[in-house]
Amino acid sequence: MKSRRNQAMKRIKIFDTTLRDGEQSPGCSMNISEKIEMARQLEKLGVDIIEAGFAIASPMDHKSVQAIAGAVTNCTVASLARCTKGDIDAAWDAVKTAKHPRIHVFLATSDIHMEYKLQMSREQVLQRISEMVAYAKSFCQDIEFSAEDASRSEWAFLAQCYSNAVAAGATTLNVPDTVGYSTPQEMAELITYLRQNVTGVENVDISVHCHNDLGMAVANSLACVKAGATQIECTVNGIGERAGNASLEELVMAIHTRRDFYDAETGINTRQIYRSSKLLSNITGVPIPPSKAIVGANAFAHESGIHQHGVIANAQTYEIMNSVDVGIPQNTMVLGKHSGKHALREKLISMGYELTDEELESVFTRFKVLADKKKNITGSDIEALVLHRRNTAIGSCRLLSHVVNAGDGVPNTSCIKLQRDNDVLEEVAIGSGPLDASFKAINRMLDMDIKLESFSLNAVTDGEDAIGEAVVKVAAPDGQVYTGTGLSTDIIESSIRAYVNGINKMMEATA
Ligand code: KIV
Ligand code: ZN
Prior knowledge:
Blueprint: E1 10-11, E2 13-16, H1 18-22, H2 32-45, E3 49-53, H3 59-71, E4 76-82, H4 85-95, E5 101-108, H5 111-118, H6 122-137, E6 143-148, H7 155-167, E7 172-177, H8 184-197, E8 205-210, H9 217-227, E9 231-234, H10 248-257, H11 259-262, E10 264-265, H12 273-284, H13 305-313, H14 323-326, H15 341-350, H16 357-373, H17 379-393, E11 397-405, E12 412-420, E13 423-431, H18 434-446, E14 451-459, E15 468-475, E16 481-488, H19 491-510
Parallel strand pairs: 1-10, 2-3, 2-9, 3-4, 4-5, 5-6, 6-7, 7-8, 8-9
Antiparallel strand pairs: 11-12, 12-13, 14-15, 15-16
Zinc ion is lined by residues 21, 176, 178, 209, 211, 241.
């Protein structure tokens, strides 16, 4: 597409760090199969680079980066590494089988980090950058160098750090606002300065990596695009350290909707945005706030009469984007009790889901059960069934039945029957409520010491027969937390299913 000034559009690379910086944030950890599923979705979304993890951090991180390197082909796969040989060796070992591998090395350059964290002088930092970027380059052509806390570094010294990195072979220079301190104007001025003062900058990509401590991560990143940055680092739903990273969906839709202003475009298939956001929320159990831009439940809702009237007359009166372009399912009544597998497959394809025959069979079986309980099955219901197909497949414990007796002034009891491998287990417990009784019965029958960390319940759609989606976080005795989700029109059943799903993940991880 041409811009309003009739120049070729600038192509902005999207570097997704959901599986690294995002996964570092509390409550967002994922197991290997979840990371692979998310990486495959990021590939469908069309991101240019997936930062798959920090290979040296743990054997599990190393394994996940390696698995993602083997699972995706259309994106570059990067691993983070500090400026040490051990980190770079681990990063290379993890990404070397990727079709497009990248090593991402970083070193702090602000005075406060150099003095208190690294205890290194400026000269030592400059030398380490040259040595370690060159070391990484001896393995891999595609090298990104990040000057951690760049936005609080002294500019002339920072330019020298980046010049050294380019001379040693870096192909991308990343400028992080590590502590989310900068303003859009300052970030734009810094990018302009670096473009004028880094030797060899014209041959490399300039990237930005903004944190959201002051709520400006997206604005800061966009200001950098205006100033000449060609790569943005971001995460789905904006997850990340502390207040998070710049949100992928907000950045991409801002560039897309205001391409007249930014003269830029990305390679993102915007119709995969909502699905990516839902998948991440489903995996981590971290809900999407209703008022979250682009993907929140209220992002396209019009409550006031004046707005509704305007939108009916002409959608553009109050809508700057179309929810279809973001891939939000249209919740008109779509299927029901008499719909067959073919109709379900057609609907899934129209929603952008391509399932294998086996996956379709599993979704269809649960669709039929749902259709017996719920008259109108909407796009959101179908999407929930698809997202939960993964969870129903995990683990060796399966809920066979539950009988709950609850009320005011009576003991709350629950009788749970589970299948574990080939055994059928049954237990009754009394609790302070129906869920407490159910969870106690499960703990007792599995003889496990499990702590319920959090529990939430959401309706997937409106109406009395809505599906309830339960999310539980359960902690193992070692403190590790696992997220389980469950789906049913009966909220007690969805809660018990979520609890069993969390336990299954715990048992899978510790097996
Ligand atoms: O925030 C930061 O500085 C980082 C770097 C490692 C890129 O995440
Ligand atoms: Zn970061």
